[in-house]
Amino acid sequence: MRAIVLDGFGGPDVMRWAEVPTPHPEPGEVRVRTAAVGVNRADLLQRQGHYPPPPGASDLLGLECSGVIDAIGEGVEEWRTGDEVVALLAGGGYAEQVVVPAGQVVRPPAGIDLVSAAGLIEVAATVMSNMDHVHLTPGESLLVHGGAGGIGTFAIQYAKALGCLVATTASAAKLDHCRGLGAAIAIDYSGDWLAELLAATGDRGVDVILDIIGAKYLDANISALRDDGRLVIIGMQKGTKAELNIARLLNKRATVTATSLRGRPLGQKAAITQDVAKRVWPMISDGRVKPAPETRVPLSEAARAHELLASGELVGKIVLTVD
């Protein structure tokens, strides 16, 4: 089969379309003939050498895909060859075929074509599991950083569907997009977003923050939390180390937590995947959550897709298509 391989770590130029051995499913796994692959910022980090796959996972890029099951490992009874699925991966998606534990595949949402479905499972699993982790409840407020990206586009709609007030930061050109998704407060991150957020909330701040930025925003995020607020960090786009004001954290009885979906135990990932199908897919099928605007690029041109994502100019999701 063919796949995108890396000739070392670095820029998009290290990516190459090449012949590689075809994987075969072990007991408890299925093999998916890929129709499309979702592109995530984690892919860019792995390409640069900053986000290695967990032990035992494929060293190929790709954390989510859609396709058709074409081989089934021993002990798998719930799937048949020919079934259309989307899959949550620890790696291996940038290829014509990929093997995945059977618990991490689900059918696509009703009414969504197979290619578009490829870009849904990673963001849905990430947002849903993290909002469960910090116990976001109806009536609370959520701040989402990067509201126009794949995670942000989904998180705004998901929280609104739960009955929460949503605030977000994004570039000035993308604020109307965020408002259209349901953000009641949309702030240009190039200005003093903290001051604007506090002004918009009567100096109260928000209950929960979903942060993809990391170190650069840590202090401001703590200031933006209400009493008993919760900050969950899922990205490190602007650094990994920052100073934490523990006194401010104590005075607010606030929580700072960080999670990663990729390295979770298989049982946890399977449970999250199945929960997405039960709880999130109906929201997508009935229109409460709409898929992000989508840019399709052939898998063989994955380097161009990485350049597009890194540019920050796109709104929504990039999906790599396989002939």
UniProtKB/TrEMBL annotation:
Domain Enoyl reductase (ER): 10-320
Family matches, as SUPFAM superfamilies: GroES-like, NAD(P)-binding Rossmann-fold domains
Keywords: NADP, Oxidoreductase
InterPro entries: ADH-like_C, ADH-like_N, ER, GroES-like_sf, NAD(P)-bd_dom_sf, Quin_OxRdtase/zeta-crystal_CS, Quinone_OxRdtase_PIG3
Coiled coil: none
Top-level taxonomic group: Bacteria
Name this polypeptide is given: PIG3 family NAD(P)H quinone oxidoreductase
Origin organism lineage: Bacteria, Bacillati, Actinomycetota, Actinomycetes, Propionibacteriales
